[in-house]
Amino acid sequence: MGEAVLRNEALKRGITDIHVDSAGTAAAHTGQDPDERTIEVCGMNDVPISHSARQVRASDFTSFDYILAADGSNLRALERHAGHGEGSKATVKLWGSYLPDNKPIQDPYYGGLDGFTEVYKQCVRLSNAFLDEVVGKES
Prior knowledge:
Elements: H1 2-12, H2 36-44, H3 60-63, E1 66-69, H4 72-82, E2 91-94, H5 113-134
Parallel strand pairs: 1-2
């Protein structure tokens, strides 16, 4: 969901030269479509979503400027990966660090649609805070 929301918020600002992708730190769900509840919440908010799950690759650390982790566990896994690649240029941060509350994104998987809606709202706030910092404030 975060990938789709960040891309959508960037497009709303007229930012078209941004490459946004999503990957997991583990191979779970590789090749699968997003959870049906993610698709539903994105659809209710007019956020296009089309993604097939994949695992983080070493090349991600040389081809992306920023790699944002949803939570502390993923951040630690990404930091371990980042140190292994030659030419790594990516800034690896907790996505929540772009807001004062520094909150991780909670995994809504084992809950209902409300949890996915809350994650959507958090992703919108985080996307805008991230874009404010790296691109500049919205006018």
